[in-house]
Amino acid sequence: MTKVQQNILIGGTGGQGIVASGEFLSAALFAKGYEVVFGRSYGSEARGGSCRSEIMVSDHEINDLQFETSDILLLLSLPAYKKYMGKAKKGSIVIMDSSVMERVEGDVRDDVELIQVPARDIAVRLGNQIVANMVILGALSKRSDMVRLDLLKEAVERSMRPSMREINLHALEEGYNTV
Fold first, then answer.
1. Separation between Cα atoms, residue 159 and residue 94, nearest integer Å
2. pLDDT tens digits, one per residue of 121-159
3. What is the chain's Cα-based Rg?
């Protein structure tokens, strides 16, 4: 039996829910029975600074905690694109907000599967641009067999404050339906 292990990096700017995305994704992966290691990093300025979540997921015990490259890269800001695109392995999945892609200058990597999702536009239409992170997670659940939409929804139901629960559930569904 082939062992499965993937590194998932979520990159953005403080205030975009990058850490929350990593927490929800980790919870959904753990609920599916995977071993999960979750780490996060953000600048001391928090809002507006660089922010990332790193999730190592495997169907066996994780012994090597080195996170050098990603199999899946989720990007929500141009600074994150510039900082983390080089970490995506050849052949990896890169899902990014299409509003970020519009501002990318120069050549775009053609050795990765690049999926553009209008995450910010969908979030604004839903009523709060902060849920763009959930739109991206919904898109990931459509594209990756590792992540199930129902388990992401359960993680939101369990951990999201009640006032934001419904919009986040809608954002997950919208993201799933755009891919």
1. 26
2. 999 999 999 999 999 999 999 999 899 999 999 999 999
3. 15
